[in-house]
Specification:
The structure holds 2 protein chains of 2 kinds. Chain A is an alpha/beta fold. Chain A has one domain (2-201): Rossmann fold (3-Layer(aba) Sandwich). Chain A contains 6 helices and 13 strands. Chain A has helices spanning 13-21, 33-38, 50-59, 63-72, 82-85, 190-201; strands at residues 2-5, 27-30, 41-44, 77-80, 90-91, 104-108, 121-126, 128-129, 143-148, 150-154, 160-166, 168-176, 179-182. In chain A, the strands form 3 sheets. In chain A, strands 2-1-3-4-13-12-11-8 form an 8-stranded mixed sheet. Chain A has a 3-stranded mixed sheet with strand order 5-6-10, with no helix packed on it. The model of chain A has no long low-confidence stretch (mean pLDDT 95). Chain B has one domain (5-245): Aldolase class I (TIM Barrel), CATH 3.20.20. Chain B is globular, with a radius of gyration of 17 Å. The model of chain B has no long low-confidence stretch (mean pLDDT 94). Classes of the chains: A alpha/beta, B alpha/beta. At the A-B interface, helix 1, strand 7, strand 9 and helix 6 of A face helix 2 and helix 3 of B.
Chain lengths: 203, 252
């Protein structure tokens, strides 16, 4: 059973819809610790501000069970968008500590004004996959939909799975053992996203 | 670096999809869910669906129907029409709508738009400016619902981008709508120079040349297509359609 973690933030319906579309039936949205404890895979979605997300996660009381599942039982987890940023140690967007499972921090885009780039980074972009992995092909084209004003910077470069560009190169996927993150929205990225979610479902 | 987007702009009349010419004479196109399924296969960048009569007929958004549509849209999906309250926005985002398009609400209740932007972020709100050349005078914002808009085009665009803080502007030329004669490149270009948020040009697209021109000469961030997305050719039958993006989009 894949559990899409409901901690009162973000649009969970889109992720569920895409799993259903690709024929993954054993999936549900839940914020109950029992469901999370029983899950074989976890999906951490999220939109909005870092501190708001982290507070909601803490208030939901799910952090201990998530730590146990992810760090001890090594249950695969995929963080999407803010969900990926919450995997890092901290964010420039707030003062709270993140889950810290990925050795990285989250920083704000501040592109050179001469580039005339508009934050948030919103729209479709190609990604570059740094190494072979089970979620996304190294051979492209891999095109995904992004909406974000903050990006993840890995302290341990080996955890940066894929990069994209917005003013400068940035990490758009992270990976360490059973822990994955995607800055983009696979659930809104057509067949490219279906591939990623499909691969995650069969991990 | 965010690729340029081509976006089918679907008009909905409360029952099915329609296509207008200069905001008049809606012709029936078909069922929205069916169309959305086809657009998935055609790998469109994004979809916009506008209920053109909701405000005029004082209808609320049909949330059940929108949920069905959003549930079939595996690309970013924007909805506009009859959205009035903060709860309306909240409900739409929960259903899987990424962006809400506002138009009449800008005149009716700008404060609620600010509140939504503060809560959900600028990227969740697109402001649509319908504009046309009146009998006398220069091109101006136009209200299909019959509201007074006190601004000229450039001031209105800036007001929406800075005072209301919306994430994107959609510029819809009433005079070009359904004509297949090309976008209003002039107005789109002026507004692009005047605001620093992404601009979606809409109204008049009839060819790949029009698309290239608006995206790469005028430099709009996105190009909406109406007739081209629902007819095989000008004056011809209904065909849910999407131009081969590889022939338009320059990959960076």
């Amino acid at each position: 059973m894949i559990v899409i973690i409901d901690y009162g933030i973000g649009n969970l319906a889109s992720v569920l819809n895409m799993f259903r579309k690709i024929g993954v039936r054993d999936v549900k949205i839940s914020g109950r610790a029992e469901d999370i404890a029983a899950a074989t895979k976890l999906l951490l979605p999220g939109v909005g501000a870092f501190d708001a997300g982290m507070s909601q996660l803490e208030q939901s009381g799910l952090v201990p069970v998530l730590n146990k599942k992810v760090l001890e039982e090594k249950t695969p987890i995929l963080g999407i968008c803010l969900g990926m940023q919450l995997l890092t140690r901290r964010s420039e967007e707030g003062v709270k500590s993140g889950l810290g499972w990925i050795d990285a921090e989250t920083l704000r885009f501040s592109p050179d004004p001469a580039l005339k780039l508009k934050v948030p980074h919103m729209g479709w972009d190609y990604i570059h996959v740094n190494r072979a992995n089970k979620l996304v092909d190294t051979e492209g084209p891999n095109r995904f939909y992004f909406v974000h004003s903050y990006y993840v910077k890995c302290f341990d470069e080996s955890q940066s799975l894929a990069t994209s560009r917005f003013g400068h190169e940035f990490t758009c996927m992270v990976h360490k053992d059973n822990i994955y993150g995607a800055q983009f929205h696979p659930e809104k990225s057509l067949k490219f996203g279906m591939k990623v979610l499909g691969n995650f479902a069969t991990l | 670096m965010a690729l340029k987007r081509i976006i089918p702009c679907l008009l909905y009349d409360g029952n099915g999809l329609v296509k207008t010419v200069k905001f008049k004479n809606p012709s029936y196109i078909g069922d929205p869910i069916n169309a959305i399924k086809i657009y998935n296969d055609k790998e469109v960048d994004e979809l916009i669906l506008i209920d053109i009569n909701a405000t005029k007929q004082k209808r609320r958004p049909n949330f059940d129907r929108i949920a069905d549509m959003a549930g079939e849209a595996f690309m970013p999906f924007a909805y506009g029409g009859g959205v009035k309250t903060f709860d309306d926005f909240a409900k739409l985002y929960t259903l899987g709508v990424e962006k809400v398009v506002v138009n009449s609400l800008i005149q009716e209740n700008p404060e609620v738009i600010k509140k939504v932007v503060a809560h959900y972020g600028a990227q969740a709100v697109v402001a649509c400016i319908d504009f046309r050349k009146p009998l006398f005078g220069s091109k101006s914002p136009y209200s299909y619902a019959g509201h007074k808009i006190k601004y000229n085009l450039l001031d209105y665009a800036r007001y929406l981008a800075t005072d209301l803080g919306v994430g994107e502007l959609m510029l819809y030329s009433v005079d070009q709508d359904g004509t297949w004669e090309g976008y209003d490149y002039e107005v789109t270009g002026q507004i692009l120079n005047h605001v620093d948020i992404p601009v979606i040009a809409c109204g008049g697209c009839g060819s790949m040349t029009d698309l290239k021109k608006i995206l790469y000469d005028t430099n709009a961030n996105a190009a909406a297509i109406g007739s081209m997305a629902v007819y095989s050719k000008k004056g011809m039958g209904v065909l849910i359609n999407f131009p081969d993006r590889n022939n338009v989009i320059i990959e960076n």
